[in-house]
Design goal:
The complex is a heterodimer of chains A (251) and B (129). With 251 residues, chain A is an all-alpha fold. Helices cover 67% and strands 0% of the residues of chain A. Chain A has one domain: Ferritin (Up-down Bundle). Chain B is of the alpha+beta class. Classes of the chains: A mainly alpha (251), B alpha+beta (129). At the A-B interface, helix 2 and helix 7 of A face helix 1, strand 2 and helix 2 of B.
Chain lengths: 251, 129
């Protein structure tokens, strides 16, 4: 069961770390000061969620796992279990917003399910960050609705972003090798059910915003098993640049 | 143009990116006045403004601008143009206020009478004992 929990925590944490880092690329470059601050703050929340999960890995799940910094900065792409969706470049702001919308709705539902987890430290974490996720979703929903119904250009850019993002978004729900074990032990109720409730939540918002969910497309799987696009390793190189100068440095 | 050392700036390719926000130079979104409440029942206090396209986003922006570092239970966003205000050139309406010290409670000299009352009380108790 230990391996199942470790796998789950790696997936949760790596998603948040990689996307948190991606979203932070907008810091200082956001479309307007207020939005720059809000989006940067959301990115910071995500890094915080990653730290919390790496800490659980180190403290509660497996004594042999190193400290959060070493887990975050000491691995190569093959050892990352984030979905490919999170590592894609930020694109234009429409793409970053659409990804934020699709990702944070999944996070909100995922952590909602985890509040009932039999792995108590994770259930406690899920309860703690509920309010932050609520804000992320509020922010995302407003932008999707406004830009979907804004000008012809804003609608077209959001639709293009949605078309690009969709197969990768479905990839977030790639089943893990420990799916059955997690379900049987009441740790997490599984990706399949999560994807269904996610679709029920995002579909009406997308429709109301005047956007269309793309025709059925193959989900981009692989990330959960360490197979990534060409975009992850350059991100890791940049993120770990300072750490690698002196991994033992005290901050 | 000198290349920036910041990888984010290099990626942004600022010279190539079109300025297609739809806003002209010096044209901005409206401002909203933000009022911050630190506990239930306390008064909301004005803390600053945000630029936003509508009241909903004004609140969302205010949450990070003004609710991020201190204790917050609620915020108000009020369209700045909805706030009625005096003109600064009319501040002479307030200019004689500092002269009207008879409106202050300190205009009533009661301290002496209180002290006399306390003294009398003491005397009375002393005579009883």
């Amino acid at each position: 069961m230990n391996n199942a929990i470790k796998d789950l925590l790696f997936r949760l944490a790596d998603d948040e770390l990689v996307l948190g880092h991606r979203n932070s690329e907008w810091t200082g470059l956001g479309p307007i000061l207020e939005e720059d601050i809000a989006f940067s703050s959301i990115a910071q929340d995500q890094i915080g969620h990653a730290v919390a999960n790496y800490t659980l890995l180190h403290e509660s799940a497996a004594a042999d796992e190193p400290l959060p910094d070493a887990i975050a900065f000491g691995r190569n792409e093959k050892q990352f279990f984030s979905s490919q969706f999170t590592e894609l470049p930020i694109g234009d702001y429409a793409f970053s917003l659409i990804r934020h919308f699709l990702f944070d709705h999944a996070e909100m539902l995922r952590y909602e399910l985890l509040t009932a987890s039999s792995f108590a430290p994770l259930a406690a974490l899920a309860r703690k960050i509920k309010g932050e996720l609520k804000y992320h979703v509020l922010h995302a929903d407003l932008w999707v609705s406004k830009l979907g119904q804004g000008t012809e250009e804003s609608r077209a850019r959001m639709q293009t972003a949605l078309n690009e993002a969709w197969p990768y978004a479905l990839g977030m729900f790639e089943p893990s090798d420990y799916e059955a074990e997690l379900v049987t032990n009441g740790i997490f109720s599984g990706e399949e059910g999560l994807q269904e409730s996610w679709l029920e939540v995002v579909a009406p918002i997308i429709e109301k915003a005047g956007l269309t969910i793309p025709q059925a497309s193959e989900p981009k799987y692989g990330g959960r098993h360490g197979y990534h696009t060409e975009h992850l390793q350059p991100l890791l190189d940049e993120m770990t640049e300072v750490y690698r100068l002196d991994p033992a440095a005290i901050w | 143009m000198t290349e920036s050392l910041d990888p984010r700036i290099r990626r942004a390719d600022l010279e190539a990116s079109p300025a297609s926000s739809g806003l002209k130079q010096n044209e901005h979104w409206e401002t909203y006045a933000i009022f911050h409440q630190d506990k239930r029942g306390a008064a909301h206090e004005f803390v600053g403004i945000v630029h936003a396209p509508d009241p909903e986003l004004a609140l969302v922006f205010a949450k990070e601008q003004f609710g991020r570092r201190k204790k917050t239970v609620n915020l108000w966003a009020v369209r700045s143009s909805d706030i009625y205000t005096f003109q600064h050139e009319d501040d002479d309406m307030f200019s004689t206020v500092p002269d009207k010290n008879y409106r202050e409670a300190s205009g009533y000299p009661v301290r002496k009478r209180i002290n006399k009352y306390l003294f009398d009380q003491k005397e009375e108790e002393a005579s009883k004992a």
